[in-house]
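chain below, 68 aa
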Amino acid sequence: MKSLGVLAAAVHVLDPVERIPVVLFAGEQVTDPAVAEQITNPRCWEGGQLPPSQELAPSKSARKAKPA
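prediction:
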């Protein structure tokens, strides 16, 4: 599988299949797009940029906007 990027920091994500918490450590290569889309902080990626697949992807936040 092609690497989407390398982590520069440890991150906590949910396994996309089993939905259990997983910790990925700095230096690990991320190959699963479902995992990569959970890592939204650019500082967590080497080079300080989101992988190309995430830069243009719309936000899929589960939070609803609060009425003003």
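The two ends are 45 Å apart (CA to CA). The mean pLDDT is 84.
thats it, cya
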